[in-house]
Amino acid sequence: MKPETRQQEIIRVAAKLFKEKGYSAVTMRHLATAMDIKAASLYNHIESKQDILERIIISLAETFTQGMKQISESNETCINKLKKIIELHVHISSKNSYGMASLNNDWMHLESQLTYYKKLRSDYENDFKTILEDGIKSGEIIHAKPDVMMFSILTTLRSLYIWIPKKEVINLKELTDDLSNILINGIAKE
Amino acid sequence: MKPETRQQEIIRVAAKLFKEKGYSAVTMRHLATAMDIKAASLYNHIESKQDILERIIISLAETFTQGMKQISESNETCINKLKKIIELHVHISSKNSYGMASLNNDWMHLESQLTYYKKLRSDYENDFKTILEDGIKSGEIIHAKPDVMMFSILTTLRSLYIWIPKKEVINLKELTDDLSNILINGIAKE
DNA sequence: GTCTATACCGTGATAGAC
DNA sequence: GTCTATCACGGTATAGAC
């Protein structure tokens, strides 16, 4: 493990503050106080407040894109692909729950990178929907609206960052299995 | 239908802006421009920016509390209670998708009403969990962790405000039924 | 790499004329 | 009920000393 650079430290602390109050409500002075330095000193390590937001969001979004590429190109069944997607979200959300908050809530404050972010997101959703549609064709998945199914699963996965830090027990394998079961098989008996 | 008061109009327009950019990023000058008046004029109808946020969030939170009270006190089966909850969320989210954005994303910017809001939310979640636990006892619902089940269903319902306005067709009955089926019975065949 | 000092602008809100 | 004018404050960011 390389030691964390000062820039990485700033980004990590910023992400934590962004999660608590949102990008717009966090000031450079707050961030500086949390880092125990003066606001002006931050600018030796980052270019601007916007720069911090970009580094948080874009790297996460690209990680999801990469993960989805591997999953959608694999030869698994559709149900197994869905399980891999759930695993991907649990894994990333547990590693970086602060960053996930920005990804979910503050993407609209991106400036020059907004279009790029939107493309990554829409590509991801298209791949997700294709998996569901293939599953319907092959008979693995019920014949319901892919949009509604994707919405239901994806909003749950996108909210994991709220929920994972609250659980004392961080048995990620168990959480992945429980979620897979509930999202795929439902909660009703029989 | 009584005609909308100027105050109600301000709150409605503010909620729309809050949904797009978040409470902190919306300025009184933006809001005034959207209302086609000057910022100072807003203060004839509302006390402060905070006042607007409170009016949006607290009235919605209280509506949910009322709805949950009726449902949890009814003599329905647990599965039917869950269906009623889904219906409640679809109904409120379709009537006030802008306000739902603030309820979900900007509650932490409440000041004097923050504690009250948190109590309403935690009461709601406790009632929800009790319904699930009763369902497990009675054998209607699988023996899985109530926390995980509630998280999964509730995050989906809480995100409806993002999704409902995107659907051209606003057949709410159909959406309620589709969601009930997916959330309760899952998406896997058999 | 951090500091002090500061520039410059936008913020929420108020006073008082009309 | 809306306006203009204004206030006190806090926002991001830079310059230059150490």
TrEMBL record, chains A, B:
InterPro entries attached to this UniProt entry: Homeodomain-like_sf, HTH-type_Tx_Regulator, HTH_TetR, KstR2_TetR_C, Tet_transcr_reg_TetR-rel_C_sf
Q: Where does this protein bind DNA? A: 27-46
Swiss-Prot/TrEMBL keywords: DNA-binding
Q: Which residues form a coiled coil?
A: none
Domain spans labelled HTH tetR-type: 4-64
Q: Does the keyword NAD apply?
A: no
Q: What is this protein called?
A: TetR/AcrR family transcriptional regulator
Q: Which organism is it from?
A: Winogradskyella marina
**Origin organism lineage:** Bacteria, Pseudomonadati, Bacteroidota, Flavobacteriia, Flavobacteriales
